[in-house]
Amino acid sequence: MSRRPVDPRAARSRGIPEATVARLPVYHRALLALGESGVRTVSSEELATAAGVNSPKLRKDLSHLGSYGTRGVGYDVDYLIYQIARELGLTQDWAVVIVGVGNLGRALANYGGFAGRGFRIVGLVDADPARVGEQVAGVPVTHLGRLEGLVQSTRATIGVIAVPGPAAQQVCDRLIAAGVTSILNFAPVPLVVPAGVDVREVDLGVELQILAFHEQRKADAAVPALAAGR
Amino acid sequence: MSRRPVDPRAARSRGIPEATVARLPVYHRALLALGESGVRTVSSEELATAAGVNSPKLRKDLSHLGSYGTRGVGYDVDYLIYQIARELGLTQDWAVVIVGVGNLGRALANYGGFAGRGFRIVGLVDADPARVGEQVAGVPVTHLGRLEGLVQSTRATIGVIAVPGPAAQQVCDRLIAAGVTSILNFAPVPLVVPAGVDVREVDLGVELQILAFHEQRKADAAVPALAAGR
DNA sequence: AAGTGTGAATTGATTCACAGCC
DNA sequence: GGCTGTGAATCAATTCACACTT
């Protein structure tokens, strides 16, 4: 994973720290909102506040893309939106297949942020024959048996897994075999994938458990005597 | 944020790094699965594989909880499940209110991992009067106007926000005013909260954009000549 | 005067490698 | 002999503070 040889030509984009990449989408969205309210220029302080980070971090992050600000003035909103979008690959069109048309799959299909931000849902897939033919957010549901054909004919490279845990690895394997190279996984199992395939796990249960940990610490702090006694 | 005075009695739990806390739920789930398949003892190597991490990291993580393994043998599955659950606060019962009963809210309400893992959904809230009275996963939908009363009467401390972006901050403020101290936010806006309140943002759009970034890098690597020319 | 861009310092996380125990 | 637990070393991310530009 870390032994990938670094192509010197790609040095700039290669050099963007992962933590920065994860924040660029947040900056992008904050800038879009600012732009819509008519703001033409922002300081790092203002943008940082809108994005929920501190300003040195924001400046350091943006410095990895290049020098797109003006000293004494700030950043041109539209120009920065474009530069971030280009860096993230949002200026091109990504074909996305969603597997699993339960409540979560429907929520994803209807999520406003996808269409119009470079992501096009080209297929919905479900194992239940009763759902096949149905349309969700204007996209017809295809049967799981036709998964490979759908991925290949649409040239989809991003797959979203919203199926029950036990089915997830198998769906993952089939998506990859058909040509998908990036996967967003909502099933509560860690997927095993070959090198070169990226996976991001989004796990609702994990998030709640992290909150519970902090919640417990607050409770302990509030009643130290009781906590010590337990 | 870092100037919180450290209570020496709480030193052990205080000392658990945030990155470790975020992985404990994953270990917990992997252990539950192993236990269900009849495994009584695991080595750090086996558990690490099941959880999708490497074994030194797993051992370091577990070492923050205490010495719960046996050298030369491994970890007792049931014992470790209990210790992690206790550390995460899963041995007690957390009352959760979900605000927003769209597809995402329904998906969350039906998510199997909540009930039976220490989380109890005590209320569903929606702004649409047509949804009020309806039951989702056995829980009745309450009108947004009764949010405060619901939180107070159920003593809920965890709130899940699954409403459209523009409504999120207001819902957040009301949850906190009513007594919620931990928030899981699915709306695509960074929430502003007072000190002492924990927020975790889960952002579907952000996750896809991170994948797009890596996808673009792969595409660049595959056709270096073209990429250089663009 | 205002505000970016960035080396240097710091803090945090991961990996290494091996001492210690069963 | 096998495997945990952990200091030491490495690597990554964050914060600081200020030189530099408009």
Task: Summarize the structure in words.
- Two copies of one chain form a homodimer.
- With 230 residues, chain A is of the alpha/beta class.
- Chain A has two domains: 8-88, Arc Repressor Mutant, subunit A, CATH 1.10.10.10; 94-203, Rossmann fold (3-Layer(aba) Sandwich), CATH 3.40.50.
- In chain A, 47% of the residues lie in helices and 17% in strands.
- Chain A contains ten helices and ten strands.
- Chain A has helices at residues 11-14, 18-36, 44-51, 55-63, 77-88, 103-110, 147-154, 165-178, 204-222, 224-229; strands at 41-42, 69-70, 74-76, 94-99, 119-126, 135-136, 139-143, 158-161, 182-185, 198-201.
- Chain A has a seven-stranded mixed beta sheet. Chain A has a three-stranded antiparallel beta sheet with strand order 1-3-2.
- In chain A, strand 2 and strand 3 form a beta hairpin.
- Chain A is globular, with a radius of gyration of 21 Å.
- Residues 1-13 of chain A have low confidence and may be disordered.
- The interface between A and B is large, with 71 and 71 residues.
- The structure holds a DNA duplex (22 and 22 nucleotides).
| Strands ordered across the widest β-sheet of chain A | 6-7-5-4-8-9-10
Greatest interface (CB-CB under 8 A), with counts per chain? A-B, 71 and 71 residues
Tell me the number of structural domains of chain A.
2
Q: Roughly how much helix do the residues of chain A carry, as a percent range?
A: 40-55%
Oligomer: homodimer
Total helices of chain A: the number is: 10
Content-based structural category of chain A: alpha/beta
Tell me, what's the shape of chain A?
globular
